[in-house]
Amino acid sequence: MLIGGAFATGQEAMQFFVGHGAFSLLGLVVCLLLMVYTSWSLMRAGKTRNLVTHEQAFRYFCGDIMGVVMTWYTMIMIVTVYGVMLSGVGATLEQAYGLPTLIGSSLMALCAAGTLLLGLQGIIKLLSVIGPAIVFLTIATAIASFFSEKFNLEVGLRVATETTLLRASDNWLFSGILYVGLAMPGLAAFLPLLAVTAGSQGQIRGASLLGPVGFIVAMALVVLALMGHLQLVAQAEVPILVLAAEVFPLYGSIFAIVIFLGIYTTVTPLLWSVCRRFSSDRSNRFKLIAIGLTLFCLVGGNLLPFGEMINLIYPSIGYVGLFLLLCLVFRDIQSLLRR
């Protein structure tokens, strides 16, 4: 659930890890350990407490008052991420095809809102195809770039220390922790509910280990690929596209379409979940909310370049996620003391 359009552009990897040079790998190790713990703790709580809605999960971890606050914050977070993703599409299509960013982001806004107005069933089927395709093509691009003549980790490490790059945090350790915080609102809303359907504690332990390991391995490959080409991608709004074009020029154009579809399949269900909170998806009110939020996010998503939008929004989500992480630790300590 963590791999989508934002991951595929490469900006997450750049700002949370690559910008810290050699320490980025240590940051990934810290991130892995924390993700394994949080995944196991969230799923264990969901199974034992039968948390069947994300509001129940937030209330359990944060208390009744802050649980409601976190529930509504998640709605706000989804709206802001929608704006960031519109910005990402604009940057992707501009870099690949030279389209003005407003045209690219408007095209995505039209597709997402149009899907909600016409019905969401088609997007569910498309998501099952595009999601794995993003993972495969992004990782394949990273691995293929290792064999490029321009791949040079030594130069990349030097560029990381000598070049001014956008970073989520100035400290590699905190950046790795902050990335877990970025994932926490989504994980806390999803994993406890998923665990309710798990057959046994063994399945929960397996999922909480294999999921984070698979994700961090994928992220590590992207980080190494970007680091080895940092002299080329340092100032790119969509770094992965630079790698794709380096592997094979025509492939860069194809991969831009994959990113577009990946963001489309990411933001449309997110927007649906917010609109559905306020109205039935067949009502006129639902359609007005969908159109209104789309226009609001379209304007907001074009106020800053994509990289700056990521740098502004994602770390702030991470800080709120750290509060969730602290609540999780506190709840686990409480459970241990009661035994």
Summarize the structure.
It contains 15 helices and no strands. With 339 residues, the chain is mainly α.
Topology readout:
Layout lengths: L4 H5 L1 H6 L6 H27 L4 H9 L1 H34 L3 H18 L2 H25 L7 H10 L9 H25 L4 H28 L1 H4 L5 H9 L1 H30 L5 H18 L4 H33 L1
Helix pairs in contact: 3-9, 3-10, 4-5, 4-9, 5-6, 5-13, 5-14, 5-15, 6-13, 6-14, 7-10, 7-12, 7-13, 8-10, 9-15, 12-13, 13-14
Give an overview of the whole structure.
- The longest helix has 34 residues.
- It is built from 15 helices and no strands.
- The chain is mainly alpha-helical.
- Helix 3 packs antiparallel against helix 10 and helix 6 crosses helix 13.
- It is globular, with a radius of gyration of 20 Å.
- Helix content is 83%, strand content 0%.
Q: Which structural traits does this protein have?
A:
339 residues; mainly alpha; 83% helix; 0% strand
Count helical runs: 15
Q: Report the structural category.
A: mainly alpha
Q: Report how far the terminal alpha carbons are from each other.
A: 33 Å
Rg calc: 20 Å
| Number of strand segments | 0
Portion in helices: over 70%
Question: How would you spell out the order of helices and strands?
Answer: HHHHHHHHHHHHHHH
Mind summarizing the main beta sheet? none
In round numbers, the mean pLDDT is 87
Portion in strands: under 5%
Categorize the overall geometry: globular
Low-confidence stretches: none
